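Cast an eye over my tokenised protein here and flag anything odd:

===
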Amino acid sequence: MSELVGNAWGVIFDHGDVLELRWLPSTSTMTDGGFMATLCLFASEAEKRRPIGLLIDAVEFRHAFGPGVMEWRDAHIIPRYGAAGVRRFAFLMPAGFPKAGTEAVEGPAVFPTRWFVDRREAFEWVRD
């Protein structure tokens, strides 16, 4: 694992076949613009490295989205992940997350997304 790049709200790690975005506790004061900038950075790294999977560690994520942010993500970020060749997308969430174990193809995605509370399980699934 090597640290590639980061900003005030997140750090991107290269695990070879998987890219990880680890959100930081500083997301509690992040704006929607900071969220968008960080996802653009993650998408850019995915386009450069073309991993089979992406993992977002949202255990420390504290931002509350404003109106239209998730629609922006669906329109401007998810297609970039698909174009980069991503085959699976995993979210690592805090213990007790109610959607843990759920899998879905979201919005315009061409790959499944699954939610986890166990880091090892998330990596195993995203690499499968």
Observations:
- The mean pLDDT is 96.
- Residues 9 and 24 are 5 Å apart (CA to CA).
